[in-house]
């Protein structure tokens, strides 16, 4: 099985060290373009663009990078409860057309209640997943060309439709990650690729088995992916020194402050990340070559594979053997590490090479739009 290797665009900041301003790097459009172009040339299939109030808007970042890349796909965030599913479907179709079929979408329900309240969303964890299910049902069906009436608990639409279809048919793929029972139920019903954060292989295997079983009961099959940081060097010793260096400027107060903030999240995935390191610097290798140091001060994905190319490749293959075909990777700083990972890790893996779109782009329908209907092309005169 060829593996899809994705990279990450650090729109919330980048640098040589975690949890400190020392060695921090200014992130602007030029820098993001450098990373995107490097990923495009090095053979990464796509880039994940993060979301949240500490990040640049993922949709605008993706749109701005379409003209400077050729093959790279952009995994951007859908935020249920913050935007209408019909409007989001129109935006998704537009981005897919403008990129010539290079748009991917990542359903993000959110795990920080304070941030969600700042965006006007006051639902509980359970209610957010209820709303996410309703949102996604509408979003998918509209993108697939249906006229949708939906009367849900949280969302109601009548006559929702899309006049201009996406290039990818029946619609662009939908990614999603979540560890709670409600999240797994949503994934089983509606998503195309289920993402997990980098937990030890046994825990990942259990999660995949649960989602796969739930999907099978609905007559569906899913693809699987994993979100990981990577610290790869020419030797294992160099790689572990680089891991230590990444957190060498962290003090206990900064770690405690970060962990206190993450403890307020209602994300089950975040709780599972925190349980790996328990806020302590010791015993950060939570599984062979799986290091939890990133999660001391970073929310979300908090683990890294550490080692030389063959060693990290062996760990990647262990995850692949569980059924994972997509690896969303990152490393600090992201520009240099994109090269290191491609040069030191890719040669030891069967990496799926992305194909350049063949110009199948969208052809505008003939006629004007009148009263929300496309006027047909006039019959030819003989």
TrEMBL record:
Luciferase-like domain sequence ranges: 5-325
Catalytic activity reported: an alkanesulfonate + FMNH2 + O2 = an aldehyde + FMN + sulfite + H2O + 2 H(+)
InterPro entries: Alkanesulphonate_mOase_FMN-dep, Luciferase-like_dom, Luciferase-like_sf, SsuD_RutA_monooxygenase
GO molecular function: monooxygenase activity
Role: Catalyzes the desulfonation of aliphatic sulfonates.
UniProt family annotation: Belongs to the SsuD family.
Protein name: Alkanesulfonate monooxygenase
Annotated gene: ssuD
